[in-house]
Write a structure and sequence with these properties.
Blueprint lengths: L8 H19 L3 H8 L16 H5 L2 H4 L4 H4 L25 H8 L15 H5 L12 H5 L3 H9 L10 H4 L14 H5 L1 H9 L1 H7 L8 H5 L12 H4 L6 H7 L1 H5 L12 H4 L20 H8 L2 H7 L8 H5 L19 H9 L2 H6 L7 H6 L2 H7 L8 H5 L19 H6 L3 H9 L1 H7 L8 H5 L16 H8 L1 H4 L2 H7 L5 H7 L1 H7 L8 H5 L19 H6 L7 H5 L6 H4 L2 H40 L4 E3 L3 H25 L4 H8 L4 H28 L1 H10 L3 H14 L14 H25 L1 H4 L7 H30 L9 H4 L1 E3 H7 L1 H9 L37 H10 L1
Antiparallel strand pairs: 1-2
Helix pairs in contact: 12-13, 34-35, 41-43, 43-44, 43-46, 46-48, 50-51
Length: 879
Amino acid sequence: MAPQPGPPGRWIWILAVLCLLLPLAAVAQSNGDCLSCHADKELTSEAGRSVAVDPQQFQGSTHAAAGIACVDCHQDLAGVEDYPHAASLKPADCSACHGDIQKAYRSSPHGKLKGAKNGPTCQSCHGPAHDLAGGAIAQKACASCHQSVGNMLQTSAHGGTVDACTECHGDHSLKPVKHHAQGGCADCHKQEAGAHAAGPHGLAQAQGNEAAPGCADCHGSTHSVTRLAEARSACQNCHPGRAEDIAASVHGQAFAGESKSPSSTCYQCHSGHQVYQQKGSNRATCGGCHEEVEKDYEHSLHGYALAKGLNNSPDCTSCHGDHRILASGDPKSAIHRRNIARTCGKCHGDEPVMAEGNVRLPRAAVTYEKSVHGQAVSNGQEQAATCLDCHGDHELKGPADPASEINVNNISKTCGVCHPSIQKEYEQSIHGRALALGITDSPTCTGCHGEHRILSPQNPDSPTAVAHQAQETCAQCHNDPVIIAKYGLEGTVVQTYEDSYHGLAVKWKSERAATCSACHTAHSVQPTVDSTSTVHATNVVETCAQCHPGATANFAKSYTHANLGRLESPINATVRNVYIILLAVIIGGMVLHNLIILNWHILRAKKKQQIGQQVTRFDVMQLIQHLVLSITFIGLVITGFALKFPDAWWVQGLNWLGMTEAARGTIHRFMAVLLVIFGIVHIAYVLFNRRGREEMFALLPTWKDARDVWDSFLFYTGLGKRKPKFSRYEYSQKGEYWALVWGTFIMAATGFVLWFPVEFMKFLPVWAIEVSQTVHYYEAWLATLAIIVWHFFFVIFHPEMYPMSWTWLTGKMNARDVKEHHQLWYEDMVRRGLIEPIPDEEEPGEHSTPEPEPDPDTEPDAASPEPPKGGEEEDKKSA
């Protein structure tokens, strides 16, 4: 089957398009057609404006090289056949080819000026389209409008080095660079821009701080950019006052008149772009000029501490300041001799630094200011020692470092700079020679005088004052058991000195009595066997004669504070032993004699108190409770105070008897538990026993007790004639009972906290242990003194009770004593028929003879039969 022809409509459309395009191709103008007229140099428009085009310039232009035809820009001439064409043509539209560029231009500062007088167009910068040159826009193109900027640029650091303005500002978008380091500058200055970004200025910008400086803030505008040597004035814009500080400093004075010198500008210390702020000394800061000092600092205690990350450690600026660095001879300088202690005190006397615990002897500056050295400097004696004289300045080392000026082996040399004669004496002494042999326990200057708080020997607070030499200063070694045993020293020299007249007089604040340095000298101390010693046999007489003119050899030998058992004479030992025996026999006999007499009176008082009717004061249960309370109380007092005062003579006696700390603690805790049990038993007694309840009600305080206190005061001072009447218990007994209740509770509570601190601190505040210790200690004193002063007075030392009331042992009280001291109780018992009334004794008249008290040795006791009446009559007649 033959193929069928396609639809005829498609071929008709193809022929129609060809018919339309052929005429256009026939009439399209070429560049040559345009140049045939416009090549005429004299060709002008109707308005008289030259419309000539130089063929050679056009052929060398960017457009010609790209094959751009005239009608591509002058599109309204496309298809024009009649020439000359119309005189009025639309301006060429660059956006037809450069749409994106045109869009960027319109949003730029130049584009926003479009239509304004002298507003820049494409041709204003690129030149006429017919001779448009390739490459960057020359500076003169921008300078045609920005003449002043162009002039500045030519004289700036960028002048002659930047080909076109677009290298910084861009081309068509032309955005202003807010922070140059983030924009144009970084394109050429990558290293500097990176340093700036890592410095405090760049970091502040990154955090949104608009005031943080960028490139132009320091170097000036890009068009007038200055070199770094001229940048110091720029720093003053943000850091006012620094120029005056630098000018007044040693750095500013050293480079006066050399403002263009790199050494005189800020960046010499702070760096050009990163702006160093870190602590310490390094090659980029102080170490750049002070290399040797930097090395010393890095090997010092301060340098080591800073390298370990202790940011409180001082660096160069901590002592010298930052910008206003003054010479050490300037009185205003922080390192002037008058000010150096205050400078060091910023760390060695500062509370926050002390709290961190990184500074040894944190209060050294404070104590130094109170010393003879500190006071001398404050009074204007600038030659007196300061911190730097002893510790050094930059290469400051610790006492453990052998190279340190305060190392134990170098102390005498350091002090000897100001005290050369004393240094010589010390180094030739037994102490100095021992130290030179490696015995570091031997005392040095600071061992006796102290380190920073060195006081005059005339100052009562000085360790070398008369009152402190033997007991504190020299005793550091000569009374230290470890030192004595280690080096075989005489162990009793301090004790025997204190027992001598000299030692006792010193304790009585005598300033004339001889002390250690008076006989042994202060620095030239030598052993007794050394012929140069002041206490050698050949020199001791002269030494004693300093205080005792006319002293002889026998006088000098009569006193020594060495071991008496080893050196004393046989005669003196015999005399001493005889007196010890006499003391034991005579005084012991006296004590025994008086105890026998006292015992007789105690037994006689018992008989006296048992005459006549007897009233039950305490029942058996109360007597047992009182006995347990007495035993536990005395045991607690002895074992408690033994812990607080271990050196007391009576505690030493307990130690001699074999009481150890373990035994003491066990006894104390056992007594405490027993006291608590006693308290519980007593509570049960007063709650569940009828007599106990009666006793409790009788012990309750009333308003009458307050009146009784006042009436007693008036009566016993002679201001009142009426003696108050007391009931079963009077105010002193009630107060003592309730004090016992309160004290027992307090002592038990605080005692258990101290016994089991770990358990109690799980829920108690941190101050509970310390407060419990304080309360336990002072409550113990209160209870002990109350028993001695109050209780013992009423049961022992009261004139009407002496030598002792037997009621606490027998539980009985004489009815006559009840009537005398507890009249209301007596009257109540008589009213209730519990006792027989006792006739009132007639008050003796002015001339009458008082009736004698009953004699316990002849008076029948309550159990004896009454005497015959005749005997009574005989007695009355006798009376």
